[in-house]
Write a structure and sequence with these properties.
By secondary structure, the chain is α+β, with helices and mostly antiparallel strands. Helix content is 30%, strand content 23%. The longest helix is centred in the middle third of the chain and has 15 residues, at 272-286. It is globular, with a radius of gyration of 22 Å. The two termini are 33 Å apart.
């Protein structure tokens, strides 16, 4: 379907080929420069009956199946301002198109930290990270984006500009639609800007790196003692994936890993005396680390471990209530590629599409729950109840009654990439 009349979609047009999904290119692509132009674009698409996909950096869209209808890509990269930054209140409001790395740089200058981890932060935008409900190895410390968001402004399917929540902790009120949009992947509304709770940066960061044999991963006594210190990160990476992903040197020694070893990073963040105490506790359980990374080098490691979640196009993500690697060590097959953020119960598995469904079934038998799939056609073993489907349909009808957002129908279904991430 083409545009019925020239307007803002043509005035701000950009090349559509940069917005392909699974090889499918939209008919139109446009880049608004402010929220008013964004509202005009959505209204124009609604008038012409066009299906919309909002874009940030495109990181979380890699490997996602194209929707049934895909007419317009709206690039939010032009909405990249920091609207308000109240350092004393530890709050920030920023537009959806600002990158995570730009926000981190600005906050780091004030000794504060952005409570969101997303892959490829130089590309990933705030809106994209929120829409994907993105997280990394320190999810237990940060919480998910929906735990940190205070309020947001967003555009509904008919072009209505709406806001819920507030800009500071004390005045958050009303329905939490802004929280529901985290994880919706642009299926219900387009985020314009968001207000977030920040954190003070820790005085010291330490990452301890080990090449552990599989038998240690199954040793409950060791991991129970590690769990008692509540590390900010506990991430395990399969040998083959670690060897092929050491771009910046953060996974030191990974090139020498054999398949009977798992690259393991344990992170602690606190005041220096407490970090030293926690280091001793980890060393008592696992021995002296092979390598250590402190300060900005530890930050670089967390970033690389987050990037690994998107390392291959065919991937599955699971969650588990267990915050140690014992259950994972029983479920993963020899040679299988994975990243396991054990401290926050997140397992990212890279598998052949031909066996993906069987692996989903097997992992769910081991107590894991499927929360995301990309590049593969799978379904969870236990589909959502009919009542849940009906509730989603009513939510979508309220926010996008004409069905202008291309991923909306998929969000209604019992399973959608990232909807529970």
């Amino acid at each position: 379907m083409d545009l019925k009349a020239p307007g803002i979609l043509e005035e701000r047009a950009v090349a559509p080929k940069g917005f392909a999904l699974a090889g499918r290119v939209p008919r139109h692509a446009a880049r608004p420069q402010d929220r008013h132009e964004l509202v005009e674009m959505v209204r124009a698409a609604a008038r012409d009956g066009l299906a919309i996909v909002p874009w940030g950096g495109g990181v979380s869209l890699a490997g996602v199946r194209a929707p049934e209808a895909y007419d317009v890509a709206i690039d939010l990269g032009g909405l990249d301002r920091v609207v308000e930054y109240e350092a004393e209140d530890l709050t920030l409001t920023a537009e959806a198109g600002v990158t995570l790395s730009a926000l981190r740089e600005r906050l780091g200058a004030r000794g504060q930290e952005l409570p969101i981890e997303g892959a490829q932060p130089a590309r990933a935008t705030l809106g994209g990270a929120l829409a994907a409900n993105a997280s990394g190895p320190r999810r237990l410390r940060f919480g998910a984006p929906r735990d940190r968001i205070l309020g947001a402004r967003f555009v509904l399917g008919d072009g209505t500009l709406a806001r819920t929540g507030g800009k500071v902790v004390k005045n958050v009120a009303g329905y939490g639609i802004h929280r529901m949009l985290c994880g919706s992947r642009g299926a219900l509304a387009i985020l314009v800007d968001a207000s977030l709770k920040l954190l003070p940066a820790p005085a010291e960061r330490l990452a301890m790196l080990y090449a552990l044999p599989w038998e240690i991963l199954r040793d409950a006594r060791r991991w129970h003692s590690i769990g008692r210190i509540e590390p900010s990160a506990l991430t395990l990476v399969s040998a083959g994936l670690a060897r092929g992903s050491d771009r910046g040197g953060a996974l030191s020694g990974a090139e020498a890993l054999s398949e009977d070893r798992v690259w393991t990073a344990i992170g602690v963040e606190d005041d220096p005396p407490r970090v030293d105490e926690l280091r001793r506790a980890v060393a008592n359980a696992l021995g002296e680390p092979t390598f250590e990374r402190r300060g900005v080098e530890a930050e670089a490691l967390w970033e690389q471990l987050t990037d690994l979640q998107e390392a291959r196009p065919s991937r599955l993500a699971f969650t588990s209530p267990d915050l140690d690697p014992i259950r994972m060590a029983s479920a993963v097959r020899p040679g299988e590629a994975f990243v396991h953020h054990a401290a926050c119960g997140r397992l990212h598995l890279f598998t052949d599409p031909s066996v993906a469904q069987s692996r989903v079934n097997e992992f769910e038998q081991h107590g894991f729950t499927l929360i995301e799939a990309a590049g593969v056609e799978v379904a969870p073993a236990a589909p959502a109840a009919t009542a849940t489907h009906a509730l989603r349909a009513s939510i979508r009808a309220a926010l996008d009654p004409a069905g202008r957002f291309a991923f909306g129908k998929r969000w209604e279904s019992t399973f959608f990439e990232g909807s529970a991430a």
